Amino acid sequence: MRAFRRGFFVLFLVMLLATGCEHADPLDPNRLEPTLSSIQANIFDLNCALSSCHAGPAPQLGLDLSAGQARATTVNVQSVENAPQRRIAPGDPDNSYLVWKIEGRPEISGERMPRGRAPLSQEQINTIRQWITDGALDN
């Protein structure tokens, strides 16, 4: 009987842990959300804000995507490659040059971003698009 209870308890714990894995932890720092802080930590910091790209003392095309700088160098800032297009037009991802670059649209100058790395996933692109749709807030 004791072995049965122990086996049942172990089975219960395994089931509890398995069902807990189906839901994202709201405190998980790697959870991708349409907020600047989430995009910064999960996309920009890992793919763009690198010293040879869009960070450091001389970021490419003056576009600094490092923490604390990304919003100031993108939102309502004119694109250097495709003026007068804005890098990010709040509320309008379809007219945001940053979206064009990460989607690899034919209208872009140069290469699809991130250069030399795998393209962003559709989930990552959709998250950036949603953040822009929501107004590209500093959140």
- Tell me what portion of residues adopts beta-strand conformation: under 5%
Tell me the radius of gyration: 21 Å
Query: What average pLDDT do the residues reach?
Result: 85
- Helix amount, in percent? 25-40%
Q: How many domain units?
A: 1
The main pleated sheet reads as:
none
Q: How many strand elements? A: 0
N-to-C CA distance:
55 Å
Structural class: mainly alpha
Number of helices: 4
Q: Spell out the helices and strands N to C.
A: HHHH
Poorly predicted residue ranges: 7-27
Shape: globular
Protein described:
The longest helix has 19 residues, at 2-20. The model is unreliable at 7-27 (pLDDT under 50). The protein is an all-alpha fold. It has one domain. 37% of the residues lie in helices and 0% in strands.
Question: How would you sum up this structure in a few lines?
Answer:
By secondary structure, the chain is an all-alpha fold. The chain has one domain.
Output the keywords.
139 residues, mainly alpha, 4 helices, globular
List the helices and strands and how they pair.
Layout: H1 2-20, H2 36-48, H3 97-103, H4 122-133
